[in-house]
Amino acid sequence: MRIDPEKVYGSVPESFSHRVAYALRQCEKEETKTMKRKPVAAMMITILLLTLTTTAVAAVLSRTTEFFVFEYGERYREKMESGVVAPVGQSTVLNGVTFTLDDAVIIQNKRPSLPVHFLYCRHCGLRIVDSCGVLSCGTCLIVFEVRHVYLHKTIQHFECFNTLIA
Amino acid sequence: MTHDDFAARIIAMQGTLYRVTCSILPIHADREDAVQSAIEKAWRKLPSLRDDSRLQTWMVRILINECYAILRQHKRMSPVETIPDSPAPPDADPDLYRFFTSLPDTLRPAMVLHYLEGYEVKEIARMLRIPAGTVKTRLMRGREKLKENEDVKEALGL
């Protein structure tokens, strides 16, 4: 059984139709406003992101330089600021420990070993190698190797492991 | 879906939208507020609609939600005076109009959606967010009331 709807509530009143039309016009205006707003919003977001990135990079760079200057003396400031490029395999002696630059292990654009080292290093002395590494393919890569000596010193010296670290 | 397509489909279904509001809201001004709010909400959430063919069912569900939201707002207000029952529209059958307006609030939306708009029980259950069994019960009670009313039976030619 189906009842004729107009017999129950009559035809749609004109005021109701006007309100529907008004609501649809409002939707159209909203759409136009959103479309106009989009480029401005995109520009603002880009500017904001650029500012944040620049600030973050500047902060990180200055802190890194200060760290090396504090750890290894004023001569590192110039070295850090000028950016020294060291080929893979080059050894550096810092505080009596030999550090050798190795190929950076990168898996899915991440350095998986880094957090592990930080985790193990809670009670050990951190060593940071400041340089750029040159990968075997020839690409220059900024290397911030944070490593630590996790073997007993006697074993290190006995087995000559100190050269393998870093 | 472009705005023009959306507008065309909303205009085509405005009769259904009007009767859905009538089944829940007794005051005409509230019906207009509900439909405006529902259309604006539907337009904003249109990208979340996966299947365009379900626009009408989806729209009716949004409208029902809006109508109940308005009813909830009214519950918080204390009326200064009672509003008299609105007379039947000039082109409507007065007996049928009286019958539908006198139905309990719980039965009316299901009766309107099924007998006037032709929706299936499952669709009504989805729109009203109630089990299909409850919809069937409500329709059965509505039918019983209809059978009791001789004027309505006569108007429907039963």
Explain the overall architecture.
The complex is a heterodimer of chains A (166) and B (158). Helix content of chain A is 52%, strand content 16%. Chain A is of the alpha+beta class and 166 residues long. In chain A, the strands form two sheets. Chain A has a two-stranded antiparallel sheet with strand order 1-2. In chain A, strands 3-4 form a two-stranded antiparallel ribbon. In chain A, helix 2 (14-72) packs across helix 3. Chain A starts with a helix and ends in a 7-residue tail after the last helix. In chain B, helix 2 (14-24) packs parallel to helix 4, helix 4 packs across helix 7 and helix 6 (108-116) crosses helix 8. The radius of gyration of chain B is 16 Å and the shape is globular. The A-B interface holds A 1-3, 5-13, 15-17, 19-24, 26-28, 30-31 and B 3, 6-7, 10-11, 14-15, 17-19, 22, 28, 31-32, 35-36, 39-40, 43-44, 88-93, 96-97, 100, 112, 115-118, 155-156.
